[in-house]
Amino acid sequence: MNRLGHKIMTSWVSLGPRFLPFADVATPDLPLSRLLRLSLFQVSVGMALVLLVGTLNRVMIVELDVPASLVGIMLALPLVFAPFRALIGYKSDTHRCELGWRRVPFIWNGTLMQFGGFAVMPFALLVLAGKLESADAPLWIGHASAAFAFLMVGAGVHTVQTAGLALATDLTPPESHPKVVGLMYVMLLVGMIASALLFGAALADFSPGRLVQVVQGAAVLTVLFNIIAMWKQETRNPPRGAAPRAPDPSFSESWASFCQGEDAVRRLVIVGVGTMAFGMADILLEPFGGEVLHLTVAVTTKLTALLALGGLLGFGFASHVLGRGADPYRIAQRGAWIGLPAFALVIVAAPTGLTGLFLAGNFLIGFGGALFGHATLTATMNRAPKHQAGLALGAWGAVQATAAGVGMALSGVIRDLVNAANWTIEGPWGFASAAHGYIVVYLIEIALLVVTIAASVPLIRRLVARRSGELNPDTALVLGGLPTGPQVGDTRGGSTS
Hints:
Elements: H1 2-19, H2 32-38, H3 40-63, H4 68-76, H5 85-94, H6 104-129, H7 139-171, H8 177-202, H9 208-230, H10 251-259, H11 264-279, H12 285-291, H13 297-323, H14 328-352, H15 355-383, H16 389-421, H17 436-468, H18 473-476
Helix pairs in contact: 3-4, 3-7, 3-8, 3-9, 3-12, 3-13, 4-16, 5-7, 5-16, 6-7, 6-9, 7-16, 8-13, 8-15, 11-15, 11-16, 11-17, 12-13, 13-15, 14-15, 14-17, 15-16, 16-17
């Protein structure tokens, strides 16, 4: 029996890293259980994203009859704080707490802001839509209260995620960063999948009262998850009595130093354009399914789970190949290539009415977006100096989140403007005018993906030239196969954002 048990345990240990590429990131000082507990902050963030993008957008547009342009603006409001992620990261790098913490105070403050936003959000939405007893309330109250709620949630999400990822970077060695990114974002997607399924079931029979229960339940879970995530994670080094430290550089000095890196601007542009390419559809996929394909609320909410499942597999694959030394921007380019047929499938679903094409497109959007996001974030973590980890991750997050917010706002406005024009398409594949606005947005996303692919070519060429000693464009553009030689710890040949 002991021999059998030993064989089972040996097999389990050997199979774990094979099927979970991030599983071997654990060390004796940092066991996997501690990493999983830390990653609960990503679960709370995933839950917030599902509510904002996967559930409330559909509820506001379809059930509450809020114009899509207003929904797009409201959902973009959390991104107002996105440009401040670099500042948040810098502050967490240099913060001197009396208890000796740097990251934990920021995670806690972000948690409180997230909780406050969710606490008032459902009532604000009901006032915004003029439902029930709020039908006679002034319109500006609904606009102001909803804007406040979304701003609070946005501030909390950005603060928690920036400080949380910086803390994960502090706790792990550089060679483990790709797998840490994989683990953190797998847990983000786990939270999204679980939340999408639970919210979809809870809102199957929609009512304003049920909406209040779901959103405020999410507020309570946010606090619970983040407290568990923070518990005994960061070492306390009280500054009292410690030797005086040299003054920290100002934010402007730190930012200037960060931007002096090789191709820093180009890398940030790639992150921004690629994120907008994948993110413009975020608030439109579920309404597209409901308005054009006539899917129910429960079904469209579960689309987020399908999107997250594609992302889960994408992060698993990216963790595996990046852990073997693949160039991050080659993997990011692969993700952009996958996005092209993904959006094409969603477009074709409108005239054909084939739900299967729509579902397949959603899955591929999640897969391609995960490759792109994982690769660019891994590049950032690999090249970030230890004393600037928060700033580097904040810069990546600021560009990524700002691009997502601008994309979401534009997508809602473009959809409404195109549909207002009431265009018609003649022929055997003619389809309802309600689909036209959605399709224009998807075509714009395809164009942005092409720009992303083109912008990444010089980075890949330069890396190939650095390794081969000569510039070979044909080799740089080959997307199949992995670069040879160990590269995980070689930050000189890596990429940053």
